[in-house]
Write a structure and sequence with these properties.
Layout (H helix, E strand, L loop, with lengths): L1 H6 L4 H4 L13 H20 L10 H20 L4 H5 L8 H17 L2 H26 L3
Helix pairs in contact: 3-7, 4-6, 6-7
Length: 143
């Protein structure tokens, strides 16, 4: 459910694509590979592994992370659907829409006491965050 909760808002891009173009940035093959594998693992691993004894207090950070992530999607739609709203910094976090999903998956791993999900989140982080940083630099480039 957490994986779907993280991925579901991305469907907004189908109906509400950015009005400003997202720059074409070269993402190294290994970075893209880690990102895609991490995404797949974060969806599949919870479904194929048994959770440990649930640590319910970690549910709070999961909900807080999802709330922040959804708030950023609302900001994207309300501020005119610019690429900078997708990749711009918030409160000193360079690419919060890439960082928050990773943090949600880490918190979910703690909640479920599932080390395999934690590893999956780390794999996602290795690809997703640096790829988003590259795109963010392209969004900020005035050329």
């Amino acid at each position: 459910m957490v994986g779907l909760a993280v991925l579901l808002p991305n469907l907004l891009l189908v109906w509400f694509p950015p009005r400003t173009p997202i720059p074409r940035v070269v993402i190294p093959w290994w970075m893209g590979g880690f990102e895609r594998v991490g995404q797949a693992l974060c969806l599949v691993v919870p479904a194929i592994t048994a959770p440990g004894d649930l640590a319910w207090w970690w549910c709070g950070p999961v909900v807080a992370g999802l709330t922040g992530y959804y708030a950023l999607w609302v900001r994207y739609v309300r501020t005119g659907r610019s690429a900078s709203a997708l990749y711009g910094p918030v409160w000193g976090v360079p690419v919060p829409m890439a960082v928050l999903p990773v943090l949600v998956f880490v918190a979910a791993a703690m909640w479920l006491r599932n080390p395999w999900l934690a590893v999956s989140a780390a794999v996602l982080a290795v690809g997703h965050v640096p790829a988003a940083m590259r795109i963010a630099r392209g969004v900020g480039d005035p050329r």
